[in-house]
Amino acid sequence: MSSTLLNSKDISRAVSRISHEILERNHGAGNIALVGIRTRGVVLSQRLREKIKEIEGVTVDHGVLDITLYRDDLADGIHKPELKKTEIAFALEGKHIILCDDVLFTGRTIRAAIDALMDFGRPSSVQLAVLIDRGHRELPIRPDYVGKNIPTAKSKRVQVLLAEEDDEDKVIIQEQSN
Amino acid sequence: MALSTKNILGTKELTQSDILQILDTADSFKEISTRAIKKVPALRGKTIINLFFEPSTRTRTSFEIAGKRLSADVINISGSTSSTVKGENLIDTARNLEAMSPDILVVRHHCSGAAELLSQFVNSPIINAGDGAHEHPSQALLDLLTIRSHKGDLKGLKVAIVGDVSHSRVARSNIRAMQTMGMKVRVVGPPPLIPVEIERLGVEVSHNLAEAIKDVDVIMVLRIQLERQNQGLLSSLREYSNYFCLTSETLAQAQDDVLIIHPGPVNRGIEIALDVMEGPRSLILDQVTNGVAIRMALFYLLLGENNANPN
Amino acid sequence: MQTLIKNGQVIDPANQIDGPFDILIDKRKISAIEPRGKIPESKNISVIDAKDCVVAPGFCDMHVHFREPGHEYKETIETGCASAVAGGFSTVAVMPNTFPVNDNHSITELILSQAKKTNLANVFPIGAITKGLKGETLSDMGELKEAGCIGYSDDGKPVMDSELMRRALEYSRMFDLPCIQHSEILDLTREGCMNEGIISTELGLKGMPVEAEDIMVFRDICLLRKTGGRLHVAHISSGGAVELVRQAKAKGLPVTCEVAPHHFTLTEEACRNYDTNTKMSPPLRTHEDLELIKEGLRDGTIDIIATDHAPHDVADKQMEFSKACFGIVGLETALPLTLKMVDEKVITLQKAVDLLTHQPSRLFNLDKGSLGVGKDADIVIFNPKTQYTIEPEKFKSRSKNSPYKGWKVRGKVLHTLVAGKTVYSADNK
Fold this sequence. Notes:
A: alpha/beta; 4 helices; 8 strands; B: Rossmann fold; 11 helices
């Protein structure tokens, strides 16, 4: 049982708006870099990057973060996620880093991502862009750019599907099925 | 995703999917060693004991660095500082260490089968860092990682393992791992240094280096132990070198893109010529770098599984 | 005090008896052996019902190590004898590699007096060939014989020096006792701990090539041709050595040999997981050797079965394979393992009993291994069909170093009598 919250058009509009907000807030693309959190945060960051290029004509630095090794539940015996590469091939110093993820929920992933990022250097600032903010934060973390706020029951599951990974663009909500 | 074994005692127990998982994970870990801050918190609060009954610098250091880059606490216990010199036996030593709740025991010992013996008496996962002439699985895995990163795919590759195969745990671990990955192995050396009936493992045997390397993708040169001469297994190192030292002349017989690896430490000029060792086909330093990544991967994969049992 | 053993199948190869007989024992001796039912029962006669059982002369093991004096924590003469009678053995010959070595009359006497005190099984000491087993000078073979030794051996070690072995064979002729050789060219087995072959290659363990045994057997046979005397090859394990003994026998040379049950039931494959209870000398060999050993049993080249019972404490076994002591206990598993050869049709049941009774007695000139009237009533009663699982922890031996733990076998000793006295009865029938 699932219902669609955002369709392909909605997602595209959100990406476009967020890109404008990023550029507005950082006074252009000169000093920013995008870092996506695996897996769908990477897709979002790539789309933002393309959009920014469209708007400003500038290709900004881009990185990929695997936060597995920074998770706070690694030792709890959860099923071990497959470890993938982290690729950050530019210096963070002096940069405004836009951390990108698909869904913001408890905030724990973002905490891990910030820790990981800090191991690579000292950026001027870290900002957070997410496609969906569904609330239920467990840590003092808030997004700077949000595609859509979707208040949900904690038991629900919000799933972002993106064409690069899932063959189509949409955001759905469903009952948690065990 | 889980390894099929609780311990890494040898490559013999590893399935093809185990090996692939270890290599893929290690590939991901390589990047950490290139960072300014070479440390991730993955194994924070975990304790790794390096129990080395045999002197070793590079392997012990490699395990130590691997553990530390994952934020584990690594304790080194060497043969000379351990109680074994006071007559305490291997099993008692390990049981005592286990009472201090380590999360992994890394063991090197001069007796074949020592790691397997320990695994029967302790609960912590054990990584065999070399037992006698039996196995040295992390070395074989790092060799595979090194070869794969240059050749792309392991399947179908041909390898010549040259030297003292008889006493080599590296050779044994590699033969098994390579065969599991669909590679073909040929061992090369003077008959006294080739173990009996090794053909029955499905490897070819050759006593002619120049012939043996003609069609191979990888040449693995083994360290020749200087004491073999006293054991009557070698006439002299000089004569050994005449026939089995990998020189640029011999190498001219091989394919242009042949890779050269060596588990180290190298006896320059005895089993491998200096110019070959430092030449463009030599991956000896890559091996050392990859060793850290492989050992990080082993720690990471083993500790995860150990924890999959919440109380 | 008389005892009647009735309803059993009596197998007594020494007297060519095999059939339904009853045996009457009067004090220490056998007083009658008659077809079933012919010996009248009476109030004064205690009866042992041997229904479904084989009644045979008590087994004779000409190769055991009882570790006393010196290493009593592994085995004593008392625990060794308890193990022997539990395995159906009423007679054992103990090897001289004790500490101190049995190379003089005082140690021989000590062993005999301890055995007498224990009063379980007949114990015959074997004296050393060389003083201190050092392989340097001959021991006083005459003194040893007079004190009670029934043969000479440096077992555990070979007599490497060919000159010394020549002189041992020559000198022992004077006493008409055999020289028992542990056949191993040590130069070829240095640091070895298992058979040399594919398994030792895989395990990275130093091998002991089969040639080490073959060459020594060959050397000794060559010497024997010159010297006369009697050569007994201990624990033969190599197919090649069996063939050498076969040829020597065909030429009429006075050579005999024994095999231990592990060499016809196990191969080097058993060493795969570094179980130190599979470490023995000579080592477990290949499948081909195993088949040639069986052939030797079949055609009579192998004269007797002897266990090479070699008890070792956990402290000497629970360690790295290459460091562990050689040897396993064998007395309490010999019967079922020998019966496996019967099941496999390698030998008949009668032959199996022969190899464990009459032949060893004959070889060593012992007045044992026979159920003749007037002989000592040394008798074993066993059910060859009873199935059970081998549990070393239940062995009477002080040591439990057996590779047969968990084996499901057939053939259980129910009673062992020595000189008319029941010295062992199984707890449950």
